[in-house]
Write a structure and sequence with these properties.
Elements (H helix, E strand, L loop, with lengths): L3 H8 L1 H32 L1 H6 L3 E4 L13 E2 L2 H6 L4 E15 L4 E9 L10 E4 L8 E5 L9 E4 L2 E9 L10 E5 H8 L4 H9 L9 E2 L1 E6 L5 H12 L2 E4 H44 L2 H9 L4 H30 L11 H18 L1 H8 L5 H4 L1
Helix pairs in contact: 1-2, 1-10, 2-8, 2-10, 8-10, 8-11, 8-12, 10-11, 10-12
Length: 378
């Protein structure tokens, strides 16, 4: 018995492969979209996981430094340190800055911390830690800077003494780490004109000693929720566990993007289904006479249905393989992190096979309506 899929491959190999690769690119885009979501979730937790506190203390009635603006007086660290069970208190500042890179302006996410405390909210890939708060910084390699480069921030020049690898903010901006005092000055820096205007008004321009959050590490065995309740009750500030902060990041910063990515993914799968359906239908129309001959010599409807279904599934299989190759080959080109997971690919494979089978229905219906006598009419 003639196999329709094998016949198409034998007589129209180039057309069949080209068509499959075209559909494969759509499937590859679907896989990349899923990878974008996973990359967003991964990037959002890089900084929190590097800091890894037991408790985040933020401004009252806010959701934390990563979800919305939070400002706290720096001297709050002394009363927090006095709480029972608290081992370490690390004041931190966060701010987005834009500087002139080697070739073009680049946006960075600056983290300010007390460099003399021994606390390191990063993982170095090259270089060393900061030793001189007013002259040294650490940046991520994604920024394009190298060890020894000079970077101008505000009114000062800093030397890159260390590099991290793939340390980015939730928005995908490369990280920059600097001393707390310098970060505070940079965040609340007044221009010279502003300072002169304030002096004329009799106002002293100063940089407020504020931070965006405190990262608390507790002694072993201390009940975290008890410490949080103490902070809320006596310090009148908001506090979250690391798990709660992760949930806030996922829901508040990623949920809407996830829904949008999901909608695009569904649309692309629908488009892929329509394209496969049209291709199978066209291939079936081009073989009406052959199908009529098969019916004339006694081929059952099941046999014809099976042949067209095999053609559609084979097209989907080749498209899926091509899509995987395309997705993995292009993932590193994107400016943001793309994470491709084998489990996602397997789930997508099942979907593609279902889509391919459903897409063959129009071709099957056309084939089953063919009159065997049309094979004799010419």
């Amino acid at each position: 018995m003639i196999n329709l899929a094998q016949r198409d491959i034998a007589h129209s190999l180039g057309k069949f492969i080209t068509t499959a690769f075209g559909v494969g690119m759509l499937i590859g885009v679907v896989l990349i979209m899923i990878g974008v979501y996973r990359g967003m979730a991964h990037d959002a937790m890089i900084v929190p996981n590097d800091i890894a506190p037991d408790v985040w203390v933020v401004q009252k009635d806010t959701l934390g430094p990563f979800a919305e603006n939070s400002r706290l007086h720096e001297d709050l660290k002394y009363s927090l340190k006095a709480l029972a069970g608290v081992k370490e208190v690390h004041p931190l500042t966060f701010q987005s800055i834009q500087i002139i890179g080697k070739e073009k302006p680049i946006r960075l996410y600056a983290l300010g911390y007390d460099v003399l405390s021994g606390f390191t909210p990063f993982h170095l890939s090259k270089g060393r830690k900061i030793r001189i708060p007013t002259q040294e910084i650490i940046v991520d390699s994604k920024s394009g800077f190298e060890l020894g480069d000079q970077i101008s921030l505000g009114r000062d020049e800093y030397t890159v003494v260390g590099l991290t690898h793939k340390a980015v903010s939730s928005g995908g901006d490369p990280m920059l780490y600097m001393g707390l005092r310098e970060a505070q000055e940079l965040q609340f820096l007044f221009s010279n004109d502003q300072i002169r205007n304030d002096r004329n008004r009799g106002v002293q321009s100063t940089s407020p000693q504020t931070v965006n959050t405190f990262a608390l590490k507790l002694h072993t065995g201390v009940e975290i929720q008890q410490v949080i309740q103490e902070i809320k009750r006596w310090k009148h500030q908001q506090a979250f566990t690391q798990e709660e902060q992760a949930e806030i990041l996922t829901k508040n910063l990623i949920e809407r993007s996830a829904k949008q990515i999901g909608m695009f993914t569904v649309i692309l799968l629908i488009v892929s289904s329509v394209i496969i359906s049209l291709i199978i239908y066209t291939m079936t129309i081009n073989k009406i006479k052959e199908i009529a001959i098969l019916k004339l010599i006694g081929a059952s409807n099941f046999t014809i249905t099976k042949m067209i279904g095999q053609q559609s599934v084979l097209l989907g299989l080749i498209a899926f393989i091509a899509g995987n190759i395309f997705a993995h080959a292009s993932a590193d080109i994107f400016p943001k992190t793309i994470i491709l997971v084998a489990q996602d690919a397997m789930k997508l494979f099942v979907v593609v096979m279902i889509v391919s089978i459903l897409a063959s229905i129009s071709g099957i219906r056309t084939a089953l309506r063919v009159d065997p006598s049309s094979a004799i009419g010419g």
